[in-house]
Write a structure and sequence with these properties.
Blueprint (H helix, E strand, L loop, with lengths): L1 E6 L13 H8 L1 E6 L2 H4 L8 H18 L3 E4 L3 H5 L5 H9 L4 E3 L3 H14 L4 E9 L4 E6 L9 E5 L9 E5 L3 E8 L6 E12 L7 E6 L3 H7 L6 E5 L3 H7 L2
Parallel strand pairs: 1-2, 1-3, 3-4
Antiparallel strand pairs: 5-6, 5-12, 6-11, 7-8, 9-10, 9-12, 10-11
């Protein structure tokens, strides 16, 4: 059975972060391992730039080995005040290493990443909706970390919300993707094949910013979405995701 680390509790502002451990065991053959955030915060204050962000990555790799984890989700904002840096680079590198790694202690996002990794070999870009154009069906999605194996090019930036540490501004290849999310009890799944039509950069948003052309995403988000975080996965795989949780 695969072990998934919940490092710290889910962030307080998450709209829906509940999960059903029994169903996760039965449907995904995974168990949730709760790990105190202090196991990362014990680093204390690290260097502000890349060197400090890499120390957080190294500590998370140690926890992956210590607890024999297949994947993890990190209450990353708790690092800002103690470590004076972010988990953005650490999560970007872990995902590129093949270890599904989600932000903000979001277990449903991590479960979606696990499915994505199993189905496609890529855990996907965890992102939030930022802007909607109802006239042409385009939506802007953004976040401050992204798996480095998904991108054409990237540079380091500051973390959007705090203005400190390291985050990732990346550009993704244009073309076919799947936008997907499962609920924490695996009873709901949303998956739609979409097109990534352009990248952008504006300083008043999370640092990686992509525009998607969609058909059904906007009505879904305006009615009963499965929280804010969704996963963007290369290729068209919507039917596979739906079948995987039935």
């Amino acid at each position: 059975m695969d072990r998934l680390g919940l490092i710290g509790k889910p962030s307080d502002w998450l709209i829906s972060s509940t999960f059903d451990t029994q169903i996760i065991r039965e449907k995904l053959n995974c168990e949730i391992i709760e790990i105190p955030i202090e196991e990362v915060q014990s680093l204390g204050e690290v260097e502000e730039g890349e060197k400090g962000a890499l120390r957080i990555y190294e500590r998370l790799k140690e926890l992956v080995a210590k607890y024999n984890l297949y994947g993890l989700t990190l209450r990353c904002f708790d690092l800002l005040t103690v470590c004076k840096n972010t988990g953005c680079l650490a999560l970007a590198k872990l995902n590129a290493d093949g270890i599904p790694a989600a932000c903000e202690g979001d277990v449903p996002a991590l479960l979606t990443m696990v499915l994505a990794h199993r189905l496609t070999g890529c855990s996907g870009f965890q992102c939030n909706p930022a802007r909607v154009n109802t006239d042409n069906g385009e939506m802007l999605w953004a976040h401050c970390t992204i798996p480095l194996n998904m991108v054409d090019k990237y540079v380091y930036d500051s973390h959007f919300e705090s203005g400190i540490g390291i985050s990732i501004h990346a550009e993704l290849p244009l073309g076919k993707y799947t936008l997907v999310k499962v609920s924490g009890d695996l009873k709901r799944v949303f998956a739609e094949d979409v097109e990534l039509v352009r990248n952008q950069y504006q300083p008043n948003l999370c640092r990686t910013q992509v525009w998607l052309k969609t058909q059904h995403v906007i009505p879904y988000l305006l009615s009963k979405p499965i929280a804010n975080h969704h996963l963007l996965v290369p290729g068209h795989h919507a039917a596979e995701f739906v079948n995987a949780v039935q």
